[in-house]
Amino acid sequence: MMYQMRRAFALGLCLIAGPSVSQEVQITPDAAFRSFWINGENIVIERNQDTSHRLDSEFTKTSRPCPPFCILPMSAGAGVATVGELEVMAFLEAKAARGAGLLVDSRLPEWFVKGTIPGAVNVPFATLDADNPYRDQILQALGARQVGSRWDFSNALELLMFCNGPWSDQSPRAVRSLLDAGYPPEKILYYRGGIQVWLQLGLTVKLPTA
After folding, report:
1. Could you say which residues of the chain have pLDDT below 70?
2. Where are the domains of the chain?
3. Residues 6+ apart with CB under 8 A from 208
4. Strands, E, within 15-154: which ranges?
5. Burial of 201 (0-12, 13-18, 19+ CB in 10 A)
6. pLDDT tens for residues 149-160?
7. Is the pTM of this model over 0.85?
8. How far is the C-alpha of 96 from the C-alpha of 165, rounded, in Å?
9. What gap in Å lies between CA 98 and CA 109, rounded to an integer?
10. Which 3 state secondary structure label does DSSP give 181?
């Protein structure tokens, strides 16, 4: 598991198609798409150009049993900033592309393989639980350093966490586990919209490679 995660960190999971030739549906009035490089691979994020397109997946559901699928607070933890789609793209360009940050898909692998945000790495929320015997290795892979019984996070990566959307607690649980371990809240961001809102906006989704 650790080998696969480190390999994912190195590869960046970012092989995607280029932008459309003509784009009626832009991301912002002055940007038709966003393009940047992560670990030697070009990432392009754009919107679906079919203006009649409708979602037909499980993300069209409006009502799921609560619990467990309850509406979550805007904040995932004290000091952790909540961000939107433009901030996710800016994070990929400014942080992930420079090796200073990591976009983390906190969902279980069976969700991840159905499609994720380009550039994301899958670190399932349960692997960050304190009782996971590999948790310390994951923290080390994120740049933390163990000093005696304490952790030094001064060189740890900045993280942007997401899961399925405002009804999914997978990334908030991952955030809480990181905070409990001592990860600085100013180094964690939370994209509450998750995959559901990302899809609703017609943004590029990547199917992870084996």
Report:
1. 1-22, 210
2. 76-201
3. 13, 112, 113, 116, 122
4. 34-38, 41-45, 81-83, 101-105, 121-122, 145-147, 150-152
5. middle
6. 899 999 999 999
7. yes
8. 22
9. 26
10. helix
Instruction: Express each pLDDT in 12-58 by its tens digit.
Output: 333 334 454 568 899 999 999 999 898 888 999 999 999 999 998 88
Cβ pair 97, 39 in contact under 8 A: no
Q: Tabulate helix, strand, coil % of the chain (nearest 5).
A: 30, 20, 50
Classify domain 76-201 at the CATH topology level: Oxidized Rhodanese; domain 1 (3.40.250)
Distance of CA 27 to the CA centre of its chain: 19
Pairing of strands 145-147, 150-152: antiparallel
> Which residue from 56, 59, 57 is spatially nearest to 167, judged by alpha carbons?
59
